[in-house]
Each structure stands twice: as C-alpha cells, then as structure tokens.
Design brief:
There is one protein chain. By secondary structure, the chain is of the alpha+beta class. It folds into two domains: 122 residues, no CATH class; 91 residues, PH-domain like, CATH 2.30.29. The protein contains seven helices and seven strands. The strands form two sheets. It has a four-stranded antiparallel β-sheet with strand order 1-2-3-4. The protein is flat and about 60 Å long.
C-alpha cells in the first residue's frame, strides 16, 4: 500500500491522513486503482532500476549491431538514445510529484473518501479496458482517478505513423479541463468503419454520464 506518510510529504501535497473506517475505504480505493503498484516508493525504485537496466541492454545491442553494419550512424544514435533514457529514468523518474497522485489526493480531500468509495462500488467497467465509469468519477485501474464533470472532450488520438516509421494506432481518448488525458481504449477494428464505431460507442458512454451531471 501507499504509505500514508506520503500524505505529509510536500512532494505529494499535504492532505489529511486517513484513520478508522476512512483508512479502510482508502486502502480499497488504492487497490482498485492500482496506485501502489505504480507510485509507492518501492514500485518507483523498481521501475527506475528496471528502466536503467533495459536502457543499458538496448544500448549494448545497438552498439553491437553497429559493428556489423556499413551504416553505423543510426544504430549508434539509437544506442545513445536508449542509454540516455536509462540514465534519465534512474536519476529523474519519481523525483517530482506524479500528477495522478496529486489528483487523487485533491479529489479525496475536496470530495471526501466516502463519496469516492461509494461511487467506486457502483462503477461499471468499459469492456476491453481498465476503465470503470461511476456516476461521478472515472476509475482507471492502471493508476488514475478523474471527475466526470471535468471531462472536456472525447476524441480519437492517433499515435505513430510515417513520421516515426511505425504503424499508426488509434485510441479513444478523453481530455479534461486541466489538459490531462486518458487513453481509454485502443481502437482495433480491421477497417476504419469498425474503428469509428468502437469510438462512437465509447464516446456515447461518456456523453450520457456528462449529460446527467451538467
């Protein structure tokens, strides 16, 4: 579990420490959202180490490959990029407050842990995603929490393509008033029509919730 001492760490904001039945509700919310799995000190340390090792291994592979290719520039640049990524994760990841943790603490402080807990119990999962929709909140079980009444837009987000040399992928994405985004689901239809229909179905769920709140 996320150590409640983090609540007194300026890095995560100064919010009340829960006790009694509120602590039990907070612990269940934490498990449901997977917050500890991503943001506890132990998890951050593990992510930093694994990322650093991954960067070193990837860099070694590309540097080794450069020895057997005539055009050495690209694999050397790629190797340096992986090496720098590994070092940056080791020294900088987790040194600043995670937006998801700040948002969670702000919502719990302003709305009350009992309100979030009750809505979590009523929430319904969007098929094929890690996202649950309640009456007041959006619960992302990969580690995030949002208010439904802060939804600004639902749109198709494109990733990759010709600029990066990768296959273009599409996601149903929700944007909030503070400009944060949630990738709800990858659109996997084989045809454009099927992908659009998937997006329409997801957008309709959010629009229905938003109409009841506004």
């Amino acid at each position: 579990m996320i150590d409640q001492k983090d609540f007194k760490n300026p890095k995560y904001m100064d919010v009340p420490v829960f006790s009694g039945y509120e602590k039990n509700m907070f612990d269940e919310i934490d498990r449901f959202l997977g917050m500890s799995a991503k943001y506890s000190q132990k998890s951050v340390r593990r992510t930093k180490i694994l990322s650093f090792i991954g960067g070193l291994v990837s860099a070694a592979v590309f540097f080794y490959g450069a020895a057997f290719t005539e055009k050495k520039f690209c694999p050397i640049v790629a190797g340096i990029s992986f090496l720098l990524t590994g070092f940056s994760m080791l020294f900088f990841y987790g040194n600043k407050a995670f937006p998801a943790m700040i948002r969670l603490h702000r919502i719990l402080e302003e709305d009350g842990v009992d309100r979030v807990y009750d809505d979590m119990k009523r929430s319904v999962k969007i098929n094929g995603t890690s996202v649950y929709l309640g009456d007041d909140y959006i619960f992302d079980c990969s580690g995030d929490l949002f208010r439904i009444n802060e939804v600004k837009n639902v749109f198709i987000y494109e990733f990759g393509g010709t600029r990066t040399g990768s296959i273009k992928t599409y996601y149903a994405c929700v944007e909030f008033n503070d400009s944060s985004r949630l990738l709800v689901k990858r659109l996997t239809g084989l045809t454009e029509e099927k992908r659009i229909q998937q997006f329409i179905d997801i957008k309709a769920l959010f629009e229905e919730k938003c109409r009841t709140l506004r």
